[in-house]
Structures are given as C-alpha cells and as structure tokens.
Amino acid sequence: MRSSNRPYMASVDQLRAYAVLLVIFFHGTQIFGTWIAHDRPFQFGEDWLYSTNPAATVIFEGHTGVTLFMVLSGFIFAVGTIGKDVSYPRFMANRLLRIYPLFMVIVLIALAANPGAFGFLPFLQTVLGLGNLPGALVLGDISSGALWAVAVEMQFYLLFPLLNKLLTRFGLPTFLRLFAAIAVIRALVWFVTTVPNPDSILYYNLVGRIDQFLIGMIAAWLYLRYADHFRGWWKIGASAGIVVAALWAFNQVHGFFNHGWWRLVWVDVEGGMWALVVLTYVATVRATNVVARTVTKIGELSFSLYLLHLVIAGVLVNNRWWIEIPGIGAMASALVTVAALFLPVSIAVAMVTYHGIESPFLRLRVKYLIEPKVPIELQQLDRDLERATRSS
After folding, report:
1. Per the UniProt entry, what is one GO biological process (predicted)?
2. What percent of the chain lies above the pLDDT cut of 70?
3. Which conformational region is residue 41 in: left (phi greater than 0), alpha (psi within -120 to 50 degrees), or beta?
4. Above pLDDT 90, what percent of the chain?
5. Is 303 exposed, middle or buried (0-12, 13-18, 19+ CB in 10 A)?
6. H helix or E strand, kind and range, residue 85
C-alpha cells in the first residue's frame, strides 16, 4: 500500500523501472538483432549474445531484471510489515487486485485467439498460480516470456505473511537459518540429480527464486535499522559497479547455459548484489526532478510493460517494423530499434492498460495491517478526553 509517509516508494518505483527496462532491452536486442542479422526468429541457445564490453553484457544478461523484481517484492512487503501483524485474507485480496485483472484479461484474450490451447486443468493450474510448472497453458510469447514469473510471484505471496511472522517474532538469526536450510536441501537435490537443469531448478521455479525474495526481506530488515549506513551516491555507484562486474563475468562463462554447480551460488550472489543496489538507492535517492518523475511513472507501468512487451515485439516483427541502419551492425541497429520504437510503443500501450485495467482495481485495495487492540480502559480514556476537548 502506498502512502505519503513512505517517501522511499518513489525510489522503489524507479527501481521497478530499471528492472523492466533491463528486461525490455534484453528481449529487444535478442529479437530484433536476430531478425536484422539473419532474417529469422531468435533461437534460444544459438543466438544468445556475448561481449567483452561490460555495458553490453548488462543488456545481454538483462534477464537479471527479473531478479531485481523479486528482491524488490521481498523488500517492499517486509519494509512496511516487519514488527506488525498481517491480515492474511486482506493481504491476499490486495495481491489478487494487483495481479489478476490484467493477468486474466491477457489470458482470456490469448485463449480466444488460440482456442486449441484451452484445457480445463491447464487453465485451472495457470489461474491458480502454478503457470510456471509443466501442464500449464501454453500461450506462446505470453506464457514463455512473462506468465512464469507472475506464477512465482503469486507463490511467494502465499508464503509472505508466514515468513513475515517468522522474521518479526524470532528475528534475523532464525530467518537466516531458514535461508540456509533451503539452500542446503536444494544443493542436495542438485547433486543427487543425474543431469541437473539450472533453468528448472533455479530460474523458473520458486525453489530457486525463494532466496531472492528472502534476501529482499533481509534487506528491508537492514534498511529499517541501518539506513544511514547505506546512504551515499558513491555507495550506489559501488553497488552498481558490482552488478556490472558480476554480469560481465556471468556472460563470459556463458552462464545462462552453464550447468556447473556454481549456479547454486549464483542465485544468491545475484540476489545479494541487487539487494545492495536496493538498499543504497532507497536510502539515498529522493529526487523529484522531471527525469526522476518520468522514471517513477515508468515504474508504475512496469507490470503492464512486463506482461505485454513480448506481444508488442511480435506485432513489430510480424510487420517487419524495425530500424536497420547501414554500417553500424545488427546489434547496434537493434538497440536503436528498442530505444526509438519498441520501448516508446510499449510505454504507450502500458499507459492504456494501466489506467484502463490496473488502476481502477488498485484503488479497491484495503489496509492489511492489523491494528493492535487497545485495552478497554484506554478506549474509555480516549472517549473521555475527546468529550473534554469538545466541551472546552
């Protein structure tokens, strides 16, 4: 829930914007770059992009924006609820109001266009938040590029009130032990599996992503107690530098397709470095200039942008609408296409869907924090004071 006494929310929205921009540039360079270079669709393994340029690798590994989203989810919920009781029904009602209106509109329209994809059990599985598992609806770019992440988020929502209670009641040590236990069990399963699949175990599944949500909650705990320690523009620069260096190294070893055991550690490294960015950025940034407000608005549109950007890319590709500039190469032309065409069109569409579908339902959300009960004696004292004030 957003309120005026939470000034960090603008900074959080800006981080959401950076996350969705990473994803859009990541998919855009893949899709448009392949069409410009080879005049065919992107092939997942064959056409992956690599570079020794650190700035380029941030875009080429822009799937890391999903990790930033998940760290932010843990941070946002925990920073407002640590030390407080959460009404589970109201919390889940708010989550449904946040996710389901646009989610269901997209799913139903996609099914209307592809009726052969419908099946009662796959439909039920998808709408109940298990769309990232085998047996869910297969809806082309919609399901492969976006719905899996929505499913992982929804699974985390089911667990969050309990996780928050553990962190509130027993403190950080107990929470860290839980974190370690999950990591140990996951590692055991990894090493007992003949051919472990990092995508299935770590990328598309809550059993891998849960670490990043937990890291976000730990970051919230640190922020509430030590925000001043993370404040400083140079600290933002240092944390961003860590992200760039780590993504460069990941790209050099072809990390997305590398099945080495170190992928078990990368889940936490990636989550931890983004948590450091979140901590330093939220503790430091309070900008209200035009650029900051624009980035904040993009962050507000991030859910629509995330769910719809691959559909928009498909429309552009089907009509062969991209920008090819002779002499600069396919990847440079792809970047121009993303910045000058793909991104502006995506933002324009997202503004329509946000204000037409998301915003009205967001206004229906209710407070989900349980107010502490006031003893009857204090309630009577409050009433007596109120009457005395009126009579005076």
Report:
1. polysaccharide biosynthetic process
2. 92
3. beta
4. 77
5. buried
6. strand 85-86
